[in-house]
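An instance noted here:
***
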Amino acid sequence: MKNRSKSRQFAVQAIYSWLLTEQNVSDIEVHFISEHDMEDADISYFQEILYFVSAHKMALIDHMEAYLSRSFASVDPVEQAILLMSVFEMEQRKDVPYRVVINESVECAKVFGAEDGHKFINGIMDKVAVKLRQPEVDAPRKKKPRKR
């Protein structure tokens, strides 16, 4: 199975590039696939994230805007890219557990974001999870069997 974590990291970088340059998203896709070693990444997942985010940016922002202490435009572009990718997954990929979405977004923030950016991302995504995945958030957690 291809590594979705790598796909997410590449997607964050590509979204960041798109946010800063406003370049055509297909050009950014071609650049990333040709310039980066994506052998272990799930390229179709990377493409799904990139194209959905670019096509639905405002709708994704709408899901998180109420939880931001400032305007989305004033959020650091790296954190913008992480939030857009994460809200996409939270909204569109119900096959990915919400805890995984939050964890992956926090990990991306630790890799690419500012020193405490992961705390900001975690706080926003916790609230977005309640909004978009209320039944899953409220469901009792499965306990792991104890080893004897």
Remarks:
- Residues 32 and 78 are 17 Å apart (CA to CA).
- The chain has eight helices and no strands.
- The chain has one domain: 4-134.
